[in-house]
Structure formats: C-alpha cells, structure tokens
Amino acid sequence: MRIAQKLELVGYIENLPNGTVRTICEGAEGAINDFIGKLDIHDDDIDVEDISVEWSDTTGEFEWFEVKFDNLGMEMFQGFATAGKKLSDVSRKVDGVGQKVEKNYEKLDSIDHRLDDALNRYDLFGKEITVIREDIGDLKKFANEFSEFKDLFALYVKHEMSKDKA
C-alpha cells in the first residue's frame, strides 16, 4: 500500500480466497510499471510466482489506494501467523546473540583471571624490588663500615711499622 501511495497511485489491493492477490490501480503509466516491478517479491513470507497484468481505461472511481479486506478474520489470522513466524525468527536471533554474549563473557572472565594473575605477579615483583633495595642499603652500610675498617687497619699497620723502625 505504501509503495502505491508513494507512486501516487489510487485503487486497491486484496487477498483472494484462492491465495492470489488482486490489485487494481490507476495513475501514470510509468508509476504503474514501477509498481508492477515492485510486486515481484521473493522473501521468507511472500513468494510471487506470477504477475498477470490487464490494462484498461481509467475509471476515476478511486480517490486513494487502500487494502480491501474480504474476510477480516482470515486476514487477521494470516497477519498473526506471519507475526508469529517473525517473532520466532527474532527469538532465534536473540538466542544467538545471547550465546555470543555468553562466549564473550567467558572470554572476559578469562581475561579477568589473567589480569588478576598478572597483578599478583606484579605485587610479588614489587615486594622483591623492595627486598633488593633493602639488601642494597645493607651492602652500602657494609661498604661504609668496611671502608672505615680499612682506614683503621691502615693506621694500625702504619703505627706498627713505625714501632719496628724505632
């Protein structure tokens, strides 16, 4: 219906009891040919097998384009059946997205565990650096003490040598 309205056609479309669809429309010939081309639909819900066209003179009886409902109950049933199928398709797609989200969650959880492990190792590394710094501090103290001892020992040796000479 929207296609016909966009092409500025007037008339109607209706589902017939035998499963076919009838469209009667009036408008510019080019617009009607575009409309006919757009009726050749092949998707999950509609598979147009054949388009039969009969041309006749314009009657001027139509003011707009509309959908006629011969058996409203049947039209609604078909509409609900199509909607149910579409909802089922959406449900399957949502389930697929849910499975992908689960897989990504598992990957993120794995990354989280690896980050925790890396942080723990980083903490241990930091503690080892602290111990090494303390050891370096102890070595500096020892070096200072050794230097003082060396100076004292040199004085002692010098003193003892001066006693031997005297």
How would you explain this protein's 3D organization?
With 166 residues, the protein is mainly α. It has 2 domains: 2-70, Alpha-Beta Plaits (2-Layer Sandwich), CATH 3.30.70.100; 89-166. The protein contains 3 helices and 3 strands. It has a 3-stranded mixed sheet with strand order 2-1-3, with no helix packed on it. The longest helix is centred in the C-terminal third of the chain and has 94 residues, at 72-165. The chain starts with a helix and ends with a helix.
In short:
This protein has three helices and three strands, in the order H-E-E-H-E-H. The chain is mainly α.
> With helices defined by DSSP (H or I, 4 residues minimum), what is the helix count?
3
Overall 3D form = rod-shaped
The residue-averaged pLDDT reads: 87
Structural classification: mainly alpha
**Largest sheet features:** 3 strands, mixed
Rg: 46 Å
Give the SSE layout.
Layout: H1 2-6, E1 10-15, E2 21-26, H2 29-38, E3 65-68, H3 72-165
Parallel strand pairs: 1-3
Antiparallel strand pairs: 1-2
Features:
2 domains, 3 helices, Alpha-Beta Plaits, 3-stranded mixed sheet, mainly alpha, 10% strand, 166 residues
